[in-house]
Amino acid sequence: MKILLLPIFYLVSIQTVHSQTEPKPFSLSGEIKGQKTGIVTLFYRLGEGEKIRDSCELKNGKFHFTGYLTIPARATLQRVVNSKNDPDPENTAVIYLEPADIKVSMANNNFQEPKVTGSKTHDESEELKKLYSAIKDTGQIRIQKGDLVAQEFVRTHPNSFVSVFDLYVHKNTWPFETMRSLYYSIDPKLLTGPEGLNLSRFMKRTEENTTGKPAKPFTTLDYRGNRVQLSDFKGKYVLLDFWASWCVPCREVNPHLVDIYAKFHNKGLEIISISVDKDKAAWLNAIEKDKIGIWYNVLSNMDNNILIHELYGIGYYPTKILVGKDGIIIGRFSGTDDEILLDKKLAELF
Prior knowledge:
Blueprint: H1 2-20, E1 24-33, E2 39-46, E3 50-57, E4 62-69, E5 73-80, E6 87-97, E7 101-107, E8 110-117, H2 120-133, H3 139-156, H4 161-170, H5 176-183, H6 194-207, E9 219-221, E10 227-229, E11 237-243, H7 248-264, E12 269-275, H8 280-290, E13 296-299, H9 308-311, E14 319-323, E15 329-334, H10 339-349
Parallel strand pairs: 1-7, 11-12, 12-13
Antiparallel strand pairs: 1-4, 2-3, 2-5, 5-6, 7-8, 9-10, 11-14, 14-15
């Protein structure tokens, strides 16, 4: 019972905290060593995504910004390169603001390594950066170890905005159960910024499409022009396969999906592949090349401009959702690693 009430309670907590939190001032004083004059800009976002872009003229290499924040914010400092106020992408510093007196020092033409004091949040971001840099592996192993490092950081820093930003960045790549456990450990007040609100909407949308929830109905046409309506498959198991022709991992697991279809179709399994392709020709070529035209293939974008993948809260590919005979979701599988879990579930059913 507590698990079912947690999402509702958490969303209410976020809204309550947001309405009760008063903005507090911050001060950002900085120096660019080796540059006396010029203009720098400070960019960050608030609340529902309100964009704040402030400019400051250098005076003897120094600048100063002030503003108000309710929670920390990830910001960029950039040097302006011309009279049109165009930023210099080669000279961009990422810093974490918070209601405090913050000081930053950078070298001319080396904004990538700012020295920041006065921001506890920025210190925490540097702590995570050091943990990443300690990983000596390369390729996929480095990515996997990096994920574990980041997840442990979030687990041990639930009161850090860096944890919120990390969850926001990885929301479409980490397993949902991992996301769920970490998300509900976060201090609700840190979820009232643009990243936290986006993350909360993602969690709500995905939780509506997890095991035990009714599969969202849809009606569309397949690539041959035949009507495909999910409700027509009541009494059968349906595997919704979200993919794209440009998605390399999706294409790599298609042969396995062909094997699954051959093994279980006669026992009551249907497959509907839902592509997020915008290039119809590329989609049709992939269907033919991968030999997956043996089951239903549809585009996510239906005629009424409703996107099926958005109905199901899909942002990571491949993702597969297994729907039971009664129209209730009985499994959600993301990425290629979850193929083993899918096989295990199908073996239990058939």
